[in-house]
Amino acid sequence: MSKQFIIGLIAGVVICGVVGGLIGLSMVGKKATVEPPDWETYLITKLKNLEIPESPAPTIPIGTTDEDLLQGGEHYNHHCAVCHDLEGDADSAFAKGFYPPVSDLTSENVQRYSDQQLKWIVDNGIRYTGMPGWNGIIDDVTQWKIVHYMRALANPEKAGQLEAILKERGLWKALAPVDEHHEPEEAAEHEHPEGEHHH
């Protein structure tokens, strides 16, 4: 091994140790409801982005027709909206009670992920964030439809169209996630009144 390589390796270990120590110290005794400093948010986001791999492409075509998106929306509202909100913007007191905060799915940072990365997150979750992995609970085809619906949430016009149809079908409601999502009467419903938003 060259001297330059050894010096680089030592420097890398020291830098990682310092960064890890700073993040660790910043979390000690801190409340989940207290907004973290900008530098901590920046570092955590960068590290998280580096750690999320690409999920394999679907083995069967997953359509993005309006009906596919609506099916994705139904499952999203059932499994995801309790934390991310119906609009995907995580703009509620419940969402803000998490640390790290619940991700705003309409944000540039989330939308920057590839479809394969978003699918990986839905499937596997993200450790220490409160984001669960849905592998074994939601099948692959449905997960892809949720990913496509998450894309639609970032398009205000498309999101509005899908919202109107889901309301007509009685599916514009956040439900406590359970295995049998087609039996909402058994789940705790949290529906926003017609035309009323939580912003």
UniProtKB/TrEMBL annotation:
Ranges where the Cytochrome c domain occurs: 67-154
Q: Which residues form the signal peptide?
A: none
Q: Which UniProt keywords apply?
A: Heme, Iron, Membrane, Metal-binding, Transmembrane, Transmembrane helix
- For region Disordered, the annotated ranges are 179-199
Q: What is this protein called?
A: Cytochrome c
A Pfam family the protein falls into: Cytochrome_CBB3
Q: Which residues are listed as membrane-spanning?
A: 6-25
One GO MF term, please? heme binding
Q: Does the keyword Ligase apply?
A: no
